[in-house]
From TrEMBL:
A Pfam family the protein falls into: OsmC
SUPFAM superfamilies recorded: OsmC-like (SSF82784)
Protein name: Osmotically inducible protein OsmC
Record InterPro entries: KH_dom-like_a/b, OsmC/Ohr_fam, OsmC/Ohrsf
Length: 126
């Protein structure tokens, strides 16, 4: 669960997840002061982080010599269509079979699955 509230007279949302505090902001051209990542960047970050963590967990479980995983995610919105681009690079002495298996697993990381699923948002106002 994430809690968000507006930070005084700024274009900043203060966010709290468990014991972690952070902010989301807007760039100057949108009226903000670039005080934190914007909401789209948090979605990109969620997919990138999930990809890295899933790769590390799977490699550790299967004894794959994965040293690191580098991921770049970009949301591209054009009109009513949105695409998400994800580039993955593995570092380590991996066989082609291990690289292919990791790539298959990463197509099913939890955030990847969420972003490809049919989503319903339920909102209540108090």
């Amino acid at each position: 669960m994430v809690k968000a509230q507006r930070k005084s007279d700024t274009m900043v949302a203060e966010l709290k997840v468990r014991n972690h505090d952070f902010v989301a902001g807007l760039v100057e051209k949108l009226g903000g002061r670039d005080e934190g990542p914007n909401p789209h960047e948090y979605v990109e970050a969620a997919l990138a982080a999930c990809t890295v963590l899933t790769a590390q967990m799977y490699a550790a479980r299967k004894g794959i010599p994965l040293e690191s995983t580098d991921v770049v995610v970009k949301i591209i919105s054009e009109g009513e269509e949105t695409q998400i681009s994800r580039q993955i690079s593995y570092r380590g002495d991996l066989t082609q079979e291990q690289r292919d298996r990791l790539s298959d697993i990463l197509e099913r990381c939890p955030i990847h699955n969420l972003l490809e699923s049919k989503i319903t948002i339920s909102t209540t106002v108090s």
